[in-house]
Design goal:
Keywords: Amino-acid biosynthesis, Aminotransferase, Arginine biosynthesis, Cytoplasm, Lysine biosynthesis, Pyridoxal phosphate, Transferase. With 387 residues, this protein is of the alpha/beta class. Helix content is 38%, strand content 19%. It has two domains: 143 residues, Aspartate Aminotransferase, domain 1 (Alpha-Beta Complex); 238 residues, Type I PLP-dependent aspartate aminotransferase-like (Major domain) (Aspartate Aminotransferase, domain 2). A seven-stranded mixed β-sheet has the order 4-12-11-10-7-5-6, sandwiched between helices. Strands 1-2-3-15 form a four-stranded mixed β-sheet. The chain has a four-stranded antiparallel β-sheet with strand order 13-14-17-16, covered by helices on one side. The structure holds pyridoxal-5'-phosphate (PLP). Pyridoxal-5'-phosphate binds next to helix 4.
Length: 387
């Protein structure tokens, strides 16, 4: 039995401590439980399945690679890993082309911290209130929520938090001792808070002036989630480091830290035994290939607009207890007037729809990007009823 399963977070995490749903299989946008009940997965299991569950091209690539070679130490080049370096380098925003591979989001951010510190020779990091960057002691130091941080202190030092979206506060915090500014282009865990493109641009301008690395944590926003492959592309702002994980290998454990040359050239030694594991790399190659070839981000824009419009109409028409509907593409937050948890439970139990919370009062929708308008409609109707 796991000590730290999701049910342990049931307070504001998930709702199934009272009736666990044991999931045994998945196909496309659906998950099937042990008792054969089929659920529409509108959380994409924390945005980890942009192409849906068990996309055939990814499953095939994994099976073939597993039969060929499960693992080889990272110091020997391997076809799947080399291909992934190239693919990620090719789709990375702007001039970024250097790739560091690891096994999770938090490790990708740890690496970003280390690379920024060593490339700049500075220590200070600026992060944002309500931000989430992971749970190892470096990334945790940049994660805002006290509940996650306080029991484990001391975490890594040198981190200052500023209000998200406030360019002046950022300008005040960043100086010539700042190694990096870490931002999510849309805050995920913090309640689905999209940044104004002007804010991201001002972060770009002032970090450039200060010789500071701008890091975009796209672990949740990336892989097409917001309607562009990377959310920063939609805003037209290029970071020095971009971190990705979650959906990049369709749910297999992979994180990547994508770096501009000046970061990669100045970074001190870092390493990980599993970096670029061939099977996981094969999954990521197949995921990226399909995502790009089928313009899945474009589809996410279209269905996301439809879903948001339908939600807003339902809220207005039925006078639902909703404060705000916000987000980008298929990263949507519905801020409700009371706790979100009971709505999530009703969605799951009465409508077989799985969604996520983001804090106490926000329902978070992060469906697979391949949903169609019918699925969107089904969820709007169900939400109308439970709300
Ligand atoms: C999930 C998440 C992380 C942490 O990723 P793990 O793989 O759980 O370590 C970091 N940043 C953001 C924005 C995330 O959504």
């Amino acid at each position: 039995m796991s000590v730290f399963d999701d049910a342990a977070e049931a307070g504001e995490g998930f709702v199934f401590s009272e009736k666990p749903i044991q999931i045994e299989s998945g196909e496309g946008v659906h998950l099937t439980a042990e008792d054969s009940t089929e659920y529409l997965d509108f959380g994409a299991s924390y945005a980890c399945t942009p192409l849906g569950h068990c996309p055939p091209a990814v499953v095939n690539a994994v099976q073939e690679q597993a039969a060929e070679l499960l693992y080889v130490q990272a110091s020997y080049p391997n076809g799947a890993r080399t291909e992934l370096y190239e693919r990620l380098g090719a789709v990375a925003p702007g001039d970024i082309s250097k790739v560091w591979l690891c096994n999770s989001g938090t490790e990708a951010n740890e690496a970003a911290m280390k690379f920024a510190r060593s490339a700049t020779g500075r220590e200070k990091i600026v992060a944002t209130k309500r931000g989430f960057h992971g749970r190892t002691l470096g990334a945790l130091a940049m994660t805002w929520k006290k509940k996650y941080r306080a029991p484990f202190e001391p975490v890594a030092g040198g981190v200052e938090f500023v209000d998200y979206g406030d360019s002046e506060a950022l300008a005040e915090a960043v100086d010539d001792e700042t190694a990096a500014v870490f931002l999510e282009p849309v805050q995920g865990e913090g309640g689905i808070n999209p940044a104004d493109p002007d804010y991201l641009q001002s972060a770009r301008d002032l970090t450039e002036d200060a010789g500071t690395a701008l890091v975009f944590d796209e672990i949740q926003t990336g892989m097409g989630r917001t309607g562009d492959l990377w959310a920063c592309e939609g805003a037209g702002v290029e970071p020095d480091i971009l971190t990705t994980a979650k959906g990049v290998a369709s749910g297999l454990p992979l994180g990547a830290t994508l770096c501009a040359d000046w970061i990669a050239d100045g970074a001190a030694s870092h390493g990980s035994t599993f970096s670029g594991n061939p099977v996981v790399a094969a999954a990521a190659n197949a995921t990226l290939e399909e995502l790009v070839a089928e313009d899945v981000p474009g589809h996410a824009t279209m269905v996301g607009d439809y879903l948001t419009t339908q939600l807003e109409e339902a809220v207005a028409e039925h006078d639902l207890p909703v404060r705000d509907v916000r987000g980008e593409g298929l990263m949507i937050g519905i801020e409700v007037k009371r706790g979100a948890n009971r709505y999530l439970r009703d969605l799951a139990m009465d409508h077989q729809i799985l969604a996520l919370p983001a804090g106490r009062s926000v329902l978070r929708l992060l469906p697979p990007l391949v949903i169609n308008e019918g699925h969107a409609r089904e969820v709007v109707d169900a939400l109308t009823e439970v709300l």
